[in-house]
Amino acid sequence: MNIKGSTNIVGLIGHPVEHSFSPPMHNAAFQSLEMDYAYVAFDVEPQNVGEAIKGAESLNIKGFNVTIPHKIEVMQYLDELDEVAELIGAVNTIDFKDLKGYNTDGIGAVRAIEEVTSIKNKDVVVAGAGGASRAISFYLAKFGASSITILNRNVDKAQSLAEDVLASDLIGDVESGSISEITNHLADADILVDTTPVGMDPHINDGPIATADDMHEDLVVFDAVYNPNETVLIKEAIKAGAKPVYGIKMLLYQGAESFKIWTGRDAPIDVMQDALNDYLGR
Ligand code: ATR
User: Fold this and answer.
1) Ligand 1 atom nearest 153 alpha carbon
2) Which residues have a catalytic role annotated?
């Protein structure tokens, strides 16, 4: 990388940040397109988020990704919020041109799924009702899902999220229930989205949230867990002849969306995918 006096800086704020895959992924993209940009990670303590945003503006930084634990806190320091990011109530991308916040996590998942099937008019089951589920559910609604059924261990959380998504008026049919009843819901579903950490390294042999017996061949199965690449749930999907969508694609497409927001250019998907694979040792 050739950093010069003219180089534009984008980056990441979070705590911690040292294991982030975003610097190698974005820097590979900038390099391949010969763009005068560099991506760096900044470890920002929670009490310093406001100062970090002000400082970044003063330093003429072009864009930030925002990760744990700052995604909610950072919103109060922005001038503008993308409509869906506001509904989600969390921001993972800032464009300093207009100090506007976006949430590309949810877009990333939806784009990953859309590599395999369109979301429009589909019946989707979402497992989990935490932060990732929230970001993804609003974008499923935005992209025209016909129905969303949110299933969670804690049913109250599923119900509360379902009410919020329904209240957005992006979709007319949002239901909730217990994850223990997932078998009943999958028979009529087109897409299963798993946002729970089940199967994440080191718990790679956890019982999956659904088995091959619960799945049909036309089901698209997305697992937000990217480590390991082939989770217990993805293994079950393959066994059932269903269509798997790997968690790494969500990382890829959230990055591609952020890249587009900052630079106005389409991201070089293949280059970013290779950089991610290299980073994850695949
Ligand atoms: P994230 O930001 O990744 O969504 P989170 O907000 O902590 O993380 O949410 C984790 C989600 O995974 C929750 O819906 C959680 O269920 P509960 O609300 O009932 O706790 C779900 N989850 C975590 N571990 C799980 C497990 N072993 N089986 C099923 N669901 C699980």
Assistant:
1) 19
2) 71
